[in-house]
Amino acid sequence: MAEQVEHIKWVPNTRFMVDGFRFQSPRCKHYWLTHYHSDHTTGLTTTFSAGTIYCSAVTANLLVKDMRLNPSCIQPLPLNTPLLVDGIIVTLIDANHCPGAVLLLFKTPPPPGSEFSEQVILHTGDMRWHPRMGRHPALKNERIDMLFLDTTYASPKHIFPCQEDAIADIVKVMRQESKAHPDTLFIVGSYRIGKERAYLGAAKALGWKVHVNADKLRVLRLLGLPENDMALLTRDAAAARIHVSFMGKLLTPDALTERKRAGKWTHVVAFRPTGWSFQKSGLSCRREGDVAIYGVPYSEHSSFAELRDCVKTLRPRRIVPTVNASTPAASRALVDRFADLMDLSKDRSRLDFFLRKAKTAPSTLPVPMTTGEGRGSGSDLSSFNLCMLRLLLRSIGRGSGVALVHGAVLGSQTKRRQLSIGAFILKAPSSKQ
């Protein structure tokens, strides 16, 4: 779920907010919406009049025809086209998430003291990273100063497969269950939008129809899906082996048993397609009588390995986590997991910056830690010997009156930031001597 924290909704050096409708402000007249999921539209109501909402054409269609917003406050924008909005160049890129979801690439005025003429900011919204995204003309060889990153699954334990493999697992189970019990109804969980590739992919592989109710069909017609996908859909429940259901309470054993009793089916098999279903032993399965519920690690968010590949490809100078980052400490912990892949060559808050300056610095540094939001800021130097530590001190303390006293490295005056180095405490000396 996207964090509802105001400061990460603002695009620095602009009058823009991204997915920040809960924090509407007179300072903002340009609201950007990455996609049409409820945790990103929080605070958006039919009476919205605080400014203009910029989004993809699909999302605009949903805002007007599903949420019933006034179309005069919505500006749909094309993908892959640099556009000038309030003096800022913005490019929308497909996010490989749900229909209409986009990455937002901003080129803004630089912060004070920057060596560059512009600051490049990429906001991912929610995304499923794929290597082809790094080859997009707008991103290839582009310097990324700040990356607002979807950190939903930013933990090494999240190692689920690609979507194609997850869909293949669904198809395999459907074939097996259908062979064992020919009159089996298959139900695939979904949201208001999202998971379309899961149930449509399975239907195409098996040559089956997909049943959706009238409201779901109306929403699907707003998504711009290919005609051959739409041809798989039917309102006739009896004509379809696959039914689409909401992911919540409708996918419980009791609810599924009622579905079985109401139709011609002898068995019901349901699927929860979500990355949270991943387990190393394979697909999870809960079976109660003639009802089974499979957890399938089909995700529309990036796995941890994919997030690492994203950061390795883009090499941002700063990362701002947008999920599971409600506190500065939580945000720093997330950034820590990617700091070794970032471009931190200009970050003077990192000890590694000074180590690079020293000719005798070791070629391989320990895994970074963080003390500053959005940036790695140092290395675990507990294994450094005293000789190496002296080299470090020469790099950062020359002429500053640094002294080694009782196992602590101190300056006559110190800044607030400090880092642990084994038994030492390193405090950066103040310029006031």
From TrEMBL:
Stretches of the chain forming a coiled coil according to its record: none
Annotated InterPro entries: DRMBL, RibonucZ/Hydroxyglut_hydro
Domain DNA repair metallo-beta-lactamase: 231-326
Subcellular locations according to the entry: Nucleus
SUPFAM superfamilies, per database record: Metallo-hydrolase/oxidoreductase
Keywords tagged on the record: DNA damage, DNA repair, Nucleus
Main location per the UniProt record: nucleus
Residues spanning the membrane: none
Keyword Cell cycle: no
UniProt KW ATP-binding keyword: no
Similarity annotation: Belongs to the DNA repair metallo-beta-lactamase (DRMBL) family.
Protein name according to UniProt: DNA repair metallo-beta-lactamase domain-containing protein
Source species taxonomy: Eukaryota, Viridiplantae, Chlorophyta, core chlorophytes, Trebouxiophyceae
